[in-house]
Amino acid sequence: MKYTVSTEIALPRETVVQLLADSAHLPKWLRGLVLHEPLSGVHGQVGTTSRVVMQMGKQKFECTETITRREPADLRGIPKGSVVHFDREIVGEGMWSAVRERLTEAGPEMTLWVSESEYRFSGFLMRLVGLLMPGAFRKQSQQHMQDFKAFAEQGKDVREAKD
Q1: Which CDD domains has this protein been placed in (predicted)?
Q2: Which domains can be identified in the chain, with CATH numbers?
Q3: Distance between CA atoms of residues 96 and 126, nearest Å
């Protein structure tokens, strides 16, 4: 299963990139995050492997995330017109995923964030979930983007949301 979601954020690209790259901000916009801890390497750097635990309703899902691409490596003073890439591979029970993020300037104070996701499922239960609920994965990715946008632009914290 593959899909692409995107959003525009009313902030300069360098500001958006700095907010995305700072692990201290993850709980503020990554709805359902219980834990995100590096097992090896430094958060956000290529090759870093992290243990991630997400809570969705009563279900907890644990996976391992590996950063496979971060360009440019130095996120300060990014050349105008260049594309910022954040790619990661996520492996959990019955699931493998690759997520490729691209951030580009959409104007002087505007950033376009495009996220391409690819999922592969193994095991009966996960294959069934992928077959019966493909829209749920896309919806969750779009929700994370909207939550980040609200955090970046307005300082909204998902932990304070009244669902």
Answers
A1: SRPBCC
A2: 2-31+70-154 (3.30.530.20)
A3: 10
